[in-house]
Design brief:
This protein has one domain. It is built from 1 helix and 3 strands. Strand 1 and strand 2 form a beta hairpin. The chain is globular, with a radius of gyration of 13 Å. The chain starts with 20 loop residues before the first helix and ends with a strand.
Length: about 70
């Protein structure tokens, strides 16, 4: 998988049991990017800064707060 592709920024991973990447270290054919609400680019994994959680868009470089529900 590419460096930006991970279970932490996969739209499919929380919705299905297909993901076997962490178990077998295989290339995941089910990976789908979480789209940026601004430009549709790929969002990063969640990162934390000063106690707040964010995702970064690799395309437009916008930062989005992650709201915990």
């Amino acid at each position: 998988m590419n460096d930006y592709k991970s279970c932490g920024n996969c739209y499919v991973f929380p919705l299905t049991t297909y993901c076997k990447v962490k178990i077998n270290r295989i290339i995941c054919n089910y990976w789908k990017p979480i789209p940026c609400p601004s430009c549709g680019g790929i969002l990063s994994e969640v990162r934390e800064h000063n106690g707040k959680r964010y995702r970064h868009c690799y395309a437009c470089h916008a930062e989005f707060k992650v709201v915990m529900t």
